[in-house]
Amino acid sequence: SGESSNEHAIGVHDQQLQQQYLRRLALRDKLKLALSAHALTVNYQPIICAKTQQIEKFEALVRWHDDQFGFVSPAEFIPIAEEFGLISKLGQFVLERACQDLGRLHQLGYEHISFSINRSINEFRTDNDQVALVTQAIAKYAIPADKVVIEITESVAMSSNHYVNDALAKLKDTGVKIALDDFCTGFSSISNLIEYPVDILKIDKSFVDNILIERNQSLLTQTLIDLAGKLDMQVIAEGVETIEQLNCLRDYGCNQIQGYYFSPAVPIDECIALLSKETR
Length: 280
Ligand code: C2E
Ligand code: MG
Ligand code: MG
Ligand code: MG
What we know:
Blueprint: H1 2-36, E1 41-49, E2 55-66, E3 70-72, H2 74-83, H3 87-107, E4 114-118, H4 121-125, H5 130-140, E5 148-153, H6 154-157, H7 162-174, E6 177-183, H8 190-195, E7 200-203, H9 205-208, H10 215-230, E8 234-238, H11 243-252, E9 256-258, H12 268-276
Helix pairs in contact: 3-5, 5-7
The protein binds ligand C2E and magnesium ion (3 copies).
One magnesium ion is lined by residues 181-182, 202, 204, 238.
Domain EAL: 24-279
Protein name: EAL domain-containing protein
């Protein structure tokens, strides 16, 4: 009967939920070990000038290869790290490694390059002094503060938590730049943009995917870029995969682009190779 097939469907669903749950627990345990063993790595994705296609920044993106699970996406393990109290350790590892690698680039003469580093809301929510962690790491490797960008998502920027607001204001005072990541993908309103004095707006891939396809999305993207410019913010478009998308975004006034059109995130040695090929 229909009833029994329905029961069957629920059974399968339960099994899937349980499997997901077990995978999360296994990943949590493995991630804990990987963090202690310093088994994570950091790759860097070039961010290029939309006009000249010269590299101006790199975004630090954490990478994890597990013997059993293979490459696990940060989209999967960052939320696990946040939920199970591992994000501070992970964030500290990425910050330290990124500053070390940026220091190396600067020593090689690529002093115009900035690094952009993602920070999760849970790293701000606690009373951890984010400002001290960041300033110590950049001082240790003699990096000018204005060559470091901290990427936060809207949920961080819009938090009413006073630690978060204090930390963001103090970070800005040190000269570090603040970028608003994945803008317009969650609950957001344009008024937030005016209230939060971020330096850089990152337009999410979901917009870039549609600019050449969907007229209304394209109008919204154009308007966002316009507004950001008027607010003296820089705009970076993410997930640019074709020259047509790049040309369109550049014509809209977008300053920088990042995406597979130019390069995915690569190890630091490949970053150096990419920079050495540029004629300046
Ligand atoms: P995000 O900060 O928005 O980073 C951009 C993501 O888009 C990266 O995915 C990047 O590899 C991907 N991407 C860039 N260009 C293209 C493209 O042209 N096509 C496609 N299909 N994808 C592109 P990734 O590395 O898997 O990271 C996913 C998310 O995980 C990041 O999104 C960020 O929210 C988080 N994440 C990564 N590393 C860190 C980290 O060190 N700390 C924290 N807190 N979060 C991180
Ligand atoms: Mg980011
Ligand atoms: Mg993003
Ligand atoms: Mg994202």
